[in-house]
Specification:
- The chain has 14 helices and 29 strands.
- It is an alpha+beta fold.
- The protein folds into four domains: 208 residues, no CATH class; 99 residues, Immunoglobulin-like; 263 residues, no CATH class; 56 residues, no CATH class.
- The strands form nine sheets. Strands 1, 2, 3, 4, 7, 9 and 11 form a seven-stranded mixed beta sheet that branches.
- A hairpin with a 7-residue loop joins strand 13 and strand 14.
- Helix 1 packs parallel to helix 2 and helix 5 packs antiparallel against helix 8.
- The protein is rod-shaped and about 185 Å long.
Length: 668
């Protein structure tokens, strides 16, 4: 059998030699069309070769469309079509010396490939290593595989087949591999004498695995690329992805890239033919064309970019900040219970940080910052960065100006004590730590408002589905505690009471006149006696405690009172607040914990009422007379009396005149 096959191949080679040699020796006897396609058994006619019909000086003449559909951040589904009018003769084995001579006789030089008509003529020719048609299919698929791997990622699946239709820019043309239907000399009614027409076409379907770096996020073991990418888009980010598009010599390649279902193309580079302004409403597809038909004998590469944002759905929308919401809340709890060892418990609740703050602090969530626009990072975004390992937590704690807050508080209180704030720590769960304010923390777990689901015991520290997706309703909390220092409540009162003047009985006084000489013991006795103070404080002094490099912030000062004093309503603390959008006038009051009240009767030891419960002022008096001697002088007609008199006045309670306690409309 092997010997028989050998002689069969020898015979076929001899026939081919004669086919190519005879036209060289007797060209005038040749039929019309390319001489290398002159009809013999098993071969068909070709059209006439005309170099003017060849639109490229290279061996390949291929138009291709590459349609990329981004499934998610790990996979691209690609549909490719090639229309081949001329193909590299070396890749399909038609490069032997006899064929080269025959092609030269047909006026094809060594830079010309095999025209489509000739490929069809030799489509079924098998030199023992496979037919020309099979070789071409393999070569095309291998070439496509190499091109995709070098420009987009790792090809995980690919399938290439011959196709009967090629479509580009909405225009379709018929393709064929049938050599009996392509020439004006076939007698089949073909009217165009063009050896390059119709093209031979291929369609390819491929799955491509993308690198993490394609999406500009730092690859690490903790990264859940798909959820992280979606989360950044929902947070309002616009992320730019770069690809390499290409065209081999003799190729014209058109690339289109469609975003995932959850994303929208919002920008392309200047090389793209996509008009973003006209397609935003209907959904943009990014498109580029690379024309290397007549440019250079090397591959033409071009780095292109498309920018994607989030595509709103009926359940999930891009985060929009409420202009009335503060980005950061600062809470200073100052414990005055022991005025000799006062301590500050500081908590910062971060709802979001804006771009300016992130830039100032050197925080970046992407590898290449100029390929991303991130307008803000919400509390969910900080949890995303932490969980996915794309931004170190130290970037936040090292830059947060906690020291300046301690310094500002020190400057605002009497004596300016040395206040040192400790290292900031992250609060895992604000509810478990007993913090005031919305529930949150670094390990907060979403439930209400998030339609995303996970299998227990897994939890969702950030959410990418539902009305609360990537929001800022559940802040991140940072906490720090100061050293202890000395601070008296009376000193704070004296330093912050209004300096308004008031007049009593024609004499002018100020509030400080009353309080500047009072000691702690005096104040305690006054509070016990029923004295109380109500006033409205302008909390603008708190503004100086807000660091200038923070976005819009709210500050709360909470004073834990000593046990001998409380508010009029019985609270053990005074809370002052200041924000950019608030009124910043806080009502405060102080009173004794068990102050004396007048509205009860006073009785003596015999149960006799001395003071009625309606008497604000009550004074009791007593008069005792002791007659020692009583003489009647008859001669002088006079009386002589000796007696002792004892008078007592007891002030049980006294009401202050109205002018003494209504200092102004804010202070009583």
């Amino acid at each position: 059998m092997e010997e028989r096959a050998f002689w069969k191949n020898r015979f076929l080679s001899l026939c081919l030699t004669l086919i190519f040699a005879v036209p060289l020796l007797a060209p005038l006897a040749s039929a019309d069309g390319m001489t290398t396609c002159d009809s013999v058994s098993g071969f068909s006619d070709c059209d006439d070769y005309d170099s003017n019909d060849d639109e490229t000086p290279w061996q390949d003449w291929i138009r291709g469309t590459y349609e990329f559909d981004l499934q998610d951040t790990s996979t691209i589904h690609m549909s490719l079509s090639w229309a081949i009018r001329e193909f590299d003769r070396n890749k399909i084995g038609l490069n032997d010396s006899i064929t080269q001579s025959a092609l030269a006789f047909d006026d094809l030089d060594e830079d010309d490939g095999i025209p489509a008509d000739m490929i069809r003529t030799y489509f079924a020719y098998d030199d023992g290593s496979g037919t020309v048609g099979d070789k071409m299919l393999v070569e095309v698929e291998d070439t496509i595989n190499d091109l995709l791997s070098s420009g987009f990622g790792t090809v995980t699946a690919i399938n290439t087949q011959y196709d009967g239709i090629y479509t580009e820019a909405g225009v379709s043309e018929v393709c064929t591999t049938d050599a009996t239907q392509d020439s004006v000399y076939d007698g089949t009614g073909v009217t165009e004498n063009n050896v390059f027409e119709p093209p031979i076409c291929f369609s390819t379907i491929a799955e491509i695995e993308l690198s993490t770096s394609t999406f500009n996020l730092l690859d690490n073991a903790d990264l859940d690329l798909e959820r992280a990418y979606q989360g950044l888009l929902i947070m309002g980010s616009e992320l730019t992805t770069q690809f390499n598009v290409f065209a081999e010599p003799g190729h014209h390649s058109t690339f289109t890239i469609s975003p995932p279902d959850y994303a929208a193309v919002v920008g392309v580079d200047s090389n793209s033919s996509t008009d973003i302004d006209t397609c935003l409403l209907t959904g943009c597809v990014a498109e580029w064309a690379v024309n290397n038909l007549d440019n250079k004998p090397t591959r033409m590469d071009q780095t292109v970019s498309l920018t994607m944002g989030y595509r709103n759905t009926s359940t999930t929308s891009v985060v929009e900040l409420d202009p009335n919401d503060e980005a950061v809340s600062l809470h200073l709890k100052v414990d005055l219970f022991d005025e000799q060892a006062v301590q500050i418990d500081f908590v910062a609740g971060i709802k979001y940080l804006d771009t300016a703050t992130m830039n100032d602090w050197g925080i970046s969530l992407v590898e290449i910052s100029n390929l991303a626009t991130i307008p803000q990072i919400t509390s969910d975004g900080i949890r995303l960065a932490y969980e996915n390992g794309i931004a170190p937590l130290d970037d936040f704690t090292d830059q947060f100006p906690v020291a300046s807050i301690g310094d500002a508080f020190s400057d605002s209180i009497p004596g300016g004590p040395d206040i040192q704030m400790g290292q900031l720590s992250w609060v895992s769960d604000s509810v478990a730590d007993g913090l005031d304010g919305p529930s949150g923390g670094l390990n907060y777990s979403h439930s209400v408002g998030c339609s995303e689901t996970v299998t227990p015991p897994a939890t969702l520290s950030y959410c990418i589905q539902g009305p609360s997706a990537m929001g800022y309703d559940h802040p991140i909390y940072l906490r720090s505690t100061s050293n202890t220092f000395e601070l008296g409540l009376l000193s704070l009162i004296q330093d912050n009471l209004p300096d308004d003047d008031f007049t009593v009985d024609g004499e002018t006084f100020s509030v400080s006149d009353y309080f500047e000489v009072i000691t702690n013991d005096d104040l305690r006795r006054m509070m016990d006696a029923g004295l109380s103070l109500e006033t409205v404080l302008d909390t603008s002094f708190l503004e100086s405690m807000i660091p200038s490099d923070l976005p819009p912030s709210k500050i709360t000062l909470e004073l834990i009172l000593p046990n001998w004093i409380e508010t009029i309503s019985g609270e053990d603390r005074i809370i002052l607040e200041h924000s950019a959008s608030g009124e910043n006038r806080n009502e405060i009051s102080i009173a004794g914990p068990s102050p004396y009240t007048y509205n009860h009767p006073i009785v003596d030891e015999n149960g006799q009422t001395i003071c009625l419960q309606t008497q604000k002022t009550c004074v009791s008096t007593s008069l005792s007379i002791d007659f020692d001697t009583f003489d009647v002088n008859e001669w002088t007609k006079s009386v002589s009396v000796e007696f002792g008199l004892e008078a007592n006045a007891v002030v049980h309670r006294i009401a202050l005149p109205q002018g003494y306690y209504d200092i102004n409309e804010d202070t009583t």
